[in-house]
């Protein structure tokens, strides 16, 4: 129904301008725009500029089933988020953190630490002021806590993040409830709450837990005469609940909300009309198309990442080969230098060996000349023998030195041979490295029944007729059981968040709604369990 209203008001253009709210309610009055009248003909202030807020009048009971079109879901998400941040809907702190993380994901997409650096949420309004004042935490601590939850949502689309936000929000006690001040027959001040599930009576100081609830399938008739309302339960043995409201216009609004919510309540439990079935089929087809497109984009992204990794690996391998070639070239140069040095040393040793051999030959000739020379006296002979002995000793030393020098020359020749062999191997390795064909790199390889209403000026009433109310009650109980099973995981996540930030709470700053919410949590009371108490 909300999507039909959105299309009537031409709200596709509003989405392009990022409109904040939707539907057809005027901000300056508790009434709807009539399509048969001009806007300026309505009872409202005529100051310029005239500001309108387009809001959903009837909240969906199950957002996942009833919000068919993406434009409807987006605008309803913006409306609910604004209501939570402005504290029109009470939200506990742990749920506020989780909702903020989904809101950020719906705005920025997947978390990327290289893009979403500390401080990127400094200008965002993420939490109700009541929650911020309740804990001794800085803005940086709140941002860190929200970012941790935000990072866990990776892989979801923005539409999916908005839907997860709404699925959590629809379980809040004040979600979709319109409150009106009333008095009972005794004159006691009370609050009347009207929502998608039924009518609720609250104490003015406690908007979270109703004192009594009347589900739509258990109400037989609602009527009012002047300022008095009467609620007649389906069970004829039960008492009729009567209350008074002060303004006639408010009475009419209450009756409109009752009629509309009851009609939608019954319609949800019947087979969808052909128009709705067609809309849902189109939505499913569009969702399947988007999923296929998303998988295709993910595949392309994966192939692109793999190609980039392969390119990086080839570049790394190329750099490695270049380094190896450079090192081999340096080793070749060092081998050539070593070979030249050894060759020079070998040449010097060979020349020294030749020189020593020449000196040894000269010493031998001198010894033979001394032997031939005649020594006439014994002294001359002794001196001559001593000189001969010295000459022999000198010759022996020279022979040993010559032999050592010859051995050193042979060793230098062997080292020269080894150096030349190392040079040959280094040249072969360099030739092998430079002859490898490079791998081409390519960046292009990326891969119709309803209630009867009778109106009069003094007395307005309508009856809810349904021949199988008991069957509806059983179906509702079954839906409640299934719902509790689905919300078990979410409750565990919220409890974990609550435990992490509980130590930083400032007890003296708790509001009455915070205290009531904590008491309900300790008693195990929830929005869905209120109807069980009535039963």
Automatic annotation (TrEMBL):
<feature type="region of interest" description="Disordered">
    <location>
        <begin position="512"/>
        <end position="535"/>
    </location>
</feature>
<dbReference type="InterPro" id="IPR011174">
    <property type="entry name" value="ERM"/>
</dbReference>
<dbReference type="InterPro" id="IPR018980">
    <property type="entry name" value="FERM_PH-like_C"/>
</dbReference>
<dbReference type="InterPro" id="IPR035963">
    <property type="entry name" value="FERM_2"/>
</dbReference>
<dbReference type="InterPro" id="IPR041789">
    <property type="entry name" value="ERM_FERM_C"/>
</dbReference>
<dbReference type="InterPro" id="IPR014352">
    <property type="entry name" value="FERM/acyl-CoA-bd_prot_sf"/>
</dbReference>
<dbReference type="Pfam" id="PF00373">
    <property type="entry name" value="FERM_M"/>
</dbReference>
<protein>
    <recommendedName>
        <fullName>FERM domain-containing protein</fullName>
    </recommendedName>
</protein>
<dbReference type="InterPro" id="IPR011259">
    <property type="entry name" value="ERM_C_dom"/>
</dbReference>
<keyword id="KW-1003">Cell membrane</keyword>
<dbReference type="InterPro" id="IPR046810">
    <property type="entry name" value="ERM_helical"/>
</dbReference>
<feature type="domain" description="FERM">
    <location>
        <begin position="1"/>
        <end position="269"/>
    </location>
</feature>
<dbReference type="InterPro" id="IPR000299">
    <property type="entry name" value="FERM_domain"/>
</dbReference>
<feature type="coiled-coil region">
    <location>
        <begin position="399"/>
        <end position="436"/>
    </location>
</feature>
<dbReference type="GO" id="GO:0003779">
    <property type="term" value="F:actin binding"/>
</dbReference>
<keyword id="KW-0472">Membrane</keyword>
<dbReference type="InterPro" id="IPR000798">
    <property type="entry name" value="Ez/rad/moesin-like"/>
</dbReference>
<dbReference type="Pfam" id="PF20492">
    <property type="entry name" value="ERM_helical"/>
</dbReference>
<feature type="coiled-coil region">
    <location>
        <begin position="473"/>
        <end position="507"/>
    </location>
</feature>
<dbReference type="Pfam" id="PF00769">
    <property type="entry name" value="ERM_C"/>
</dbReference>
<feature type="compositionally biased region" description="Basic and acidic residues">
    <location>
        <begin position="512"/>
        <end position="525"/>
    </location>
</feature>
<dbReference type="InterPro" id="IPR011993">
    <property type="entry name" value="PH-like_dom_sf"/>
</dbReference>
<dbReference type="InterPro" id="IPR019747">
    <property type="entry name" value="FERM_CS"/>
</dbReference>
<dbReference type="InterPro" id="IPR019748">
    <property type="entry name" value="FERM_central"/>
</dbReference>
<dbReference type="Pfam" id="PF09380">
    <property type="entry name" value="FERM_C"/>
</dbReference>
<feature type="compositionally biased region" description="Polar residues">
    <location>
        <begin position="526"/>
        <end position="535"/>
    </location>
</feature>
<dbReference type="InterPro" id="IPR008954">
    <property type="entry name" value="Moesin_tail_sf"/>
</dbReference>
<keyword id="KW-0175">Coiled coil</keyword>
<feature type="coiled-coil region">
    <location>
        <begin position="271"/>
        <end position="366"/>
    </location>
</feature>
<dbReference type="GO" id="GO:0005886">
    <property type="term" value="C:plasma membrane"/>
</dbReference>
<dbReference type="InterPro" id="IPR019749">
    <property type="entry name" value="Band_41_domain"/>
</dbReference>
């Amino acid at each position: 129904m909300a999507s039909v209203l959105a299309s009537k008001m031409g709200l596709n253009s509003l989405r392009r301008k990022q409109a904040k709210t939707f539907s057809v309610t005027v901000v300056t009055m508790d009434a709807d725009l009539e399509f048969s009248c001009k806007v300026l003909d309505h009872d409202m202030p005529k100051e310029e500029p005239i500001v309108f807020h387009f809001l959903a009048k009837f909240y969906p009971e199950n957002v996942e089933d009833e919000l068919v079109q993406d434009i409807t879901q987006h605008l309803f998400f913006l409306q609910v988020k604004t209501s939570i941040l402005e504290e029109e809907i009470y939200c506990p702190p742990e749920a506020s953190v989780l909702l903020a993380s989904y809101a950020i994901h719906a705005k920025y997409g997947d978390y990327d630490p290289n893009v979403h650096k500390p401080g990127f949420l400094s200008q965002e309004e993420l939490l109700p002021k009541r929650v911020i004042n309740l804990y001794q935490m800085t803005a940086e601590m709140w941002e860190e806590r929200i970012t941790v939850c935000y990072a866990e949502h990776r892989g979801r689309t923005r539409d999916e993040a908005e839907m997860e936000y709404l699925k959590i929000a629809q379980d809040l006690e004040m979600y979709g409830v319109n409150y009106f001040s009333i008095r009972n027959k005794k004159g006691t001040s009370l609050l009347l709450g009207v929502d998608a599930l039924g009518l609720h009576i609250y104490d003015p100081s406690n908007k979270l837990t109703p004192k009594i609830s009347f589900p739509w399938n258990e109400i037989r008739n609602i009527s009012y005469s002047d300022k008095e309302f009467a609620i007649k339960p389906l069970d004829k043995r039960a008492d009729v609940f009567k209350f008074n409201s002060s303004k006639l216009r408010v009475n009419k609004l209450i009756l409109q909300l009752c009629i509309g919510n009851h009609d939608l309540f019954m319609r949800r439990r019947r087979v969808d009309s052909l128009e709705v079935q067609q809309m849902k089929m189109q939505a499913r087809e569009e969702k399947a198309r988007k999923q296929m497109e998303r998988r295709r984009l993910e595949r392309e992204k994966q192939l692109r990442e793999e190609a980039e990794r392969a390119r990086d690996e080839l570049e790394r391998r190329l750099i490695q080969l270049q380094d190896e070639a450079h090192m081999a070239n340096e080793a070749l140069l060092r081998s050539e230098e070593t070979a030249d040095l050894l060759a020079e040393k070998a040449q010097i040793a060979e020349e020294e060996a030749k020189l020593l051999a020449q000196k040894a030959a000269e010493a031998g000739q001198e010894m033979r000349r001394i032997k031939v020379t005649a020594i006439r006296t014994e002294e001359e002979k002794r001196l001559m023998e001593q000189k001969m002995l010295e000459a022999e000793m000198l010759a022996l030393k020279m022979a040993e030195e010559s032999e050592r020098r010859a051995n050193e020359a042979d060793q230098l020749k062997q080292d020269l041979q080894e150096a030349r062999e190392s040079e040959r191997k280094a040249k072969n390795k360099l030739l092998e490295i430079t002859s490898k064909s490079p791998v081409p790199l390519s960046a292009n390889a990326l891969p119709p029944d309803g209630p009867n209403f009778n109106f009069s000026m003094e007395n307005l009433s309508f009856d809810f007729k349904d021949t199988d109310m008991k069957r509806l009650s059983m179906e509702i109980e079954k839906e409640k059981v299934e719902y509790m099973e689905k919300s078990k995981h979410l409750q565990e996540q919220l409890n974990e968040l609550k435990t992490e930030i509980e130590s930083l709470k400032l007890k003296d700053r708790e509001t009455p709604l915070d205290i009531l919410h904590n008491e309900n949590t300790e008693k195990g009371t929830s929005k869905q369990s209120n109807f069980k108490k009535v039963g």
